[in-house]
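Input sequence (278 aa), recorded before submission:
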Amino acid sequence: MTDWFSYVALPVIAGLFGLTIGSFLNVCTLRWPKEESVVSPGSRCPKCHEAIRWYDNIPVLSWIVLRGKCRRCSEQVSIQYPLVELATGLMWAGTFATHGATGEAFRGATFLTILFGISISDARFYQDVGHFNAIPDKFSIGGAVLGVALAFLPGGPGWVQAVIGGAVGFGVLWLVGVLGTRLIKKMSPGRLEEAGVDQAMGGGDVKMMMMVGTFVGIWGVALTIFLGSVLALLVFGPISMISKRLVPLGVFLAAAGGIAYQWGDVIIAWYTTSVVGM
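Predicted structure, token format:
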């Protein structure tokens, strides 16, 4: 009975809860960058402005039943909505399947959800940083507060380690931004009117790393920054060179943060034993 609950029932329950969280995450990633409320107004069709009834707002299922269209005006509803809901549900199901009914499962699922929300927001709004906040403070600063609070859960790292990790995450990326700005200004004199962190490193990225640090600690911060930089260079570097578009670093830091949480201990242990020889 216990095994059945741990391996079947618990992941299913967590997955269903995750679907609901994913539905709310869709709203957050669309409204928070615009500094809009996620409470009012309620969900509505962007074309006919008809309020979406509860039975048309069931995660994934309603989109399938309505064939991805508004019930009233047949306006196409982006497939992003059910995909985000499904992905979030799978994250919650997988995390609880891995950790069981523990505080760490809730902490991990919450962290992965925040990272997912950041990646969606940054991918959607990073080119409009002058008008929108691509990585909303509600994800970064609010997530950091959650990270410290959830560190008190049984099996968590403890609030001291969470606070130190957050401080290191913020400080390291802030320093990278300052030094990067100076380097850019030195290499391209006259191109930058003012020196500031945001010119070499988005302020949202800096605050995001503070949040990441509260969940994964100092070594997790180092691994996240390293992997995120490598991923950004390999995946988006060539595109950026050709198109002259900014790199949505938050997307890659979010992916790296998820890797650091799930497999950080294994990667660091491999590095210290196989590469460093400790």
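Checked by second reader. Confidence is low (pLDDT under 50) at residues 191-198.
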